[in-house]
Amino acid sequence: MKRVGFVAYCWVCALLLGAVAPVAHAAPVAHAAPGAHAAPGACSPTVTAVGYSDALDKKTYGPDRVAGLSGLAYDAASGRYLALPDHMPEGAVVWQLTGLDDLPPRPRIAGAPIRLRGADGRQLAGRADNEGIAALRDGSFVVSSERGPRISVFARDGRWRYDVEVPPRYRIAPLGRAAPNAAFEGLTVTPDGNRLIAAMERGLAGDEPRTRRFLDYRRDAGGRFRLIRELVYRTAPGMRISEIAAYAPDRIVVLEAAYSPRRGSSAVLATAVIGPARGPDIVRRVTRRPLADLVDCPALGARSRQFQRNPLMDNYEGMTVAARPGGHIIHLLSDDNYSPAQTTRLLTLWARLPGPRG
């Protein structure tokens, strides 16, 4: 992850240590960009809301709509963030973003999108249901799709390079045991770039309730990702996995989510120790450790077009985690589902995460 200046975040550290009083009632910061706000407030003892921005909401770039953003990754090769739409009528693309690490956040589009192309050189269809993205150190990136499902590696310019192995039982029923629209929702690469983890949104047919499976890949001598084992994780009741992000060689943050018209959006952060990349166990059970229920965050002055218990909430599906002096910064990005009732929103959190920083 990119490191930004210490000054930008030192006041957050001071706030967590009690040296600075919090800004009252999430007042907009002076000179903030339109739609950008910042006002720290505790979501839990270890997670603090730093700010949010709706600057990307209902934007267009040429003929393309900036919407349906379901994956987020930091690309160290370019110093930009990569945002992945799940459905794109104009064709599958990846957006490049800057300004996420400003305080308050000022996300903006950094030029034309990267257009994803298949093995035949043609742009991939926009209905591929791409959900997860992970950036690699050489500038290439990995994309997971719920169609199939599939995990594919692309070159920096969007050219297809190869598909990663997916066991047959993970195929969508009736070919396998996965349910439609419930496959590889989360995707992350560890900080050293050698380990790739793909997370299922929901369980396979026959799994116990709340069971979610991860596929654990490791780079081989040729630089390609090879499947090593499966990981088994249990969510909170009623929750699906929306995204995962690694912050150490053996630790990840998990974003769990749910929605109902009566309660609105729910989002919970947890951590999991996924263990060493290699071991004697073919299937490893990982332990969930709750971090924060985001409904408990201060609203920061946010507004919502649909009912939410907390108007700061929306359909958060993209996430990055980055080490900073004294803690970690977590960026969440919401998928507006191309709906006028939903918002494309960036939410920035400050967290003290357990274990090594990686």
TrEMBL record:
InterPro entries: Phytase-like_dom (IPR027372)
Keywords of this entry: Signal
One Pfam family here: Phytase-like
Signal peptide segment: 1-26
Phytase-like domain mapped to chain residues: 65-338
Protein name as annotated: Phytase-like domain-containing protein
